[in-house]
Design goal:
homodimer, 417 residues, alpha+beta, Fumarylacetoacetate hydrolase, domain 2, 2 domains, six-stranded mixed sheet, globular
Chain lengths: 417, 417
């Protein structure tokens, strides 16, 4: 679909993440005002609560936008989601007679504060990128048996911690944890020395379910997508993860982009999944193209320094789509809730420069990465990690904005009050 | 502490789980009425919302009890919890002048419906019973290396699924899942054939935290305890759990008792943890007795048949207490929330009859258990599993009521609508 031109001039610029075709969902506040829902348009944000109050926007089951999150709208389902997009498109399209009434409800993005766009009900993280799983398996086992036996048959996932999901811009404190090196006789409690990022996409569940759903049904339940950084303490993980999986290594923080890009905005970027070595069982097979062509990159900015892009990859590298992950998530009868967040798993590509974590980029610290005049094996105090992503179809760019977080040094005494 | 006699006669009976010393917290509804908070007293439940409305109960920051859960009271903290117990004790104590005003707010437990007593924020399950970990490790690895290397140093835990925690009495549907036997070339999607229970206690977090807490601080955050059945599909678990832990095998259901026994009611049953093979690091060491002497049992009732008690054990068998688990849970900076539920891990004891799961009782199905004229390796369709538990101190019994669930047969087609 070609660019839908808007009377908001910045939305028509080729480099914007937020043309009228996008309309991503965020929560913002102005100084001394309550947080409310908004949509990004060019370099502006449209105050949906004000538009609703002014009668410019009327949705079945509303009002939806005066609270501090998108969950009520997400629960309302695809018909209301489509109606929202249609109505806002009319309001903001070039030539709209409503421009004089709508214009007062636009605010410069640079002048507002962005908040977590939704209440996270549950957070599940997957391990569904083949290059990542192969790299990690090669490092910790051997390349001939890099993938676990189940890996080509089910999207391996584990429950994460919903309480530590934060919006972009939230600083992350280097955690303490129990670690033990292979040469140490006993574990020690100390700040993590191998703190890492993981480049992921997150799928946000809109429609709840209470029994097994098909892949097609799962796809229809997904409200939209965010960028997601699954911060990981590798040294804590190495000691704790056997036999029941990662726990405190992944609980410090998960950062998401401030904008949820609705599934409808990504439709033009839909693409097929990979060729499969072994066919999937029918309940996990794709009914059609389930991935998206989304270019992704990771920037690392040392404190006071300039950013270096340390990874470039694409969401289409995934072996399993979010719809397949969500379908698998329900096989046991597990109820899914509005606001559930599904991390894709680290998205690496085939080449070294496509790797989605420092663990892979530095090959476990053995091959430190050169960035400017510095090197990095893992994240250093003060570094900022910034994820970016966008799809381009028919010359129209659909972006997510930045998903950024700075690593603060560990506390000297984590128990001091 | 000796029995506090009540004018509710059934609360003075030696066999009741609910003397005035207990005052456990539940949510109940009468026909055509809204669910509200209540406390069990003998065979009655006291309507706390009505008592609050009538001015019989006045707590700082209230009212608390008209909603459908205990979360607001749980968040209010230990001073309000203590005040609640003190005020209700005065209302219900033998000789209370308020008896005529309180009596109309009592209802027979048999005539009310019990609901989930709290909103589960996050659910975390641990693997902190030594006999269970040894049994499982012996079965799947070997007795000489049964415990993973980290096991004696940290309470191993993993995040579970909060959306599938149900109150006692909720039927559980046998799940479908992907399984692969060691002799099968490819996995299959089919109903679980090795569906099991796990006898656990659950600790309910009252006070939230946003950084690492000590074991003593963690103990003070715990509002109370429930019985917990961590239903487990062993065949699904065997195929899925490497490398990131259990996922769909544990997501069908977790059942908790309808009554939260407040920590204060269990104080007389406090007892020391085990002698340790290796000392714990200081941040996990106990500042005092952190376990409780709580006798536990599991009944199995075939459909239309009589119950057989198939396991008897005690919560004091745990290697790590809930306070230690909660402290460990926060080491990474992970925020804990009001309503977080921490499963202890399966509580087995040293003898065969003390084993807290059928996996252990039947030794992986190799030694089926005789119950009446039947045998069981795992749970059969129609079986009801009932957990019970109580502490006795100074002749006063503090019980939890039953934590029961019946297993329904798998759906013929889980995707039929």
């Amino acid at each position: 679909m070609a660019l839908i031109r808007s009377w908001v001039a910045s939305a028509n610029a080729p480099e914007t993440d937020f043309p009228l075709n996008n309309l991503p969902c965020g929560v913002f506040s102005r100084p001394n005002a309550k947080a409310r829902c908004g949509m990004a348009i060019g370099d502006q944000v449209l105050d949906l609560a004000a538009a609703e109050d002014a009668g410019l926007l009327t949705l079945a089951g509303g009002p939806y936008f005066g609270g501090g999150d998108w969950n009520a709208l997400m629960a309302a389902g695809p018909a209301v989601w489509a109606d929202l997009r249609a109505q806002v498109t009319v309001l903001l399209a070039e030539g709209s007679v409503l421009q004089p009434e709508v214009a007062p409800h636009l605010h410069e993005q640079g002048a507002v504060r962005l908040h977590m766009p939704f209440r996270v009900a549950g957070y599940t993280d997957f391990y569904a990128g083949r290059h990542h799983a192969f790299n990690v398996g090669s490092m910790f086992r051997d390349p001939a048996n890099a993938l676990p036996p189940n890996w080509l048959h089910i999207p391996i996932g584990y429950n994460g911690r919903a309480s530590s999901v934060y919006v972009s811009g939230t600083a992350v404190r280097r955690p303490w944890g129990q670690v033990k090196g292979p040469d140490q006789p006993l574990p020690a409690f100390q700040p993590s020395r191998r703190f890492d990022f993981e480049l992921e996409m997150g799928a946000v569940v809109g429609v709840a379910s209470d029994g097994p759903v098909t892949v097609a049904e799962a796809d229809a339940m997904i409200f939209g997508y965010v960028l997601l950084n699954d911060w990981s303490a590798r040294d804590i993980q190495a000691w704790e993860y056997q036999p029941l999986g990662p726990f405190q290594a992944k609980a410090t923080a998960t950062t998401v982009s401030p904008w949820i890009v609705m599934r409808a905005a990504l439709e033009p970027a839909r693409t097929n999944g990979p060729t499969r070595d072994v066919p999937l069982l029918p309940h996990l097979a794709e009914p059609g193209p389930m991935l998206y062509d989304i270019a992704l990159e990771v920037g690392l900015t040392p404190e006071g320094g300039a950013e270096t892009v340390i990874s470039r990859t694409n969401y289409r590298e995934m072996y399993y789509s979010a719809a397949q992950q969500l379908a698998h998530h329900t096989t046991s009868g597990c109820p899914m809730q509005t606001g559930d967040l599904l991390g894709s798993g680290t998205i690496s590509g085939p080449l070294r420069e496509n790797r989605g974590s420092l663990l892979e980029l530095s090959w476990g610290g053995k091959e430190p990465l050169a960035i400017g005049g510095l090197t990095r094996s893992f994240i250093e105090d003060g570094d900022t990690i910034t994820l970016r992503g966008h799809a381009v179809s028919d010359g129209v760019r659909i972006g997510f904005g930045a998903c950024a977080g700075q690593l603060l040094p560990a506390l000297a005494d984590p128990y001091a009050r």
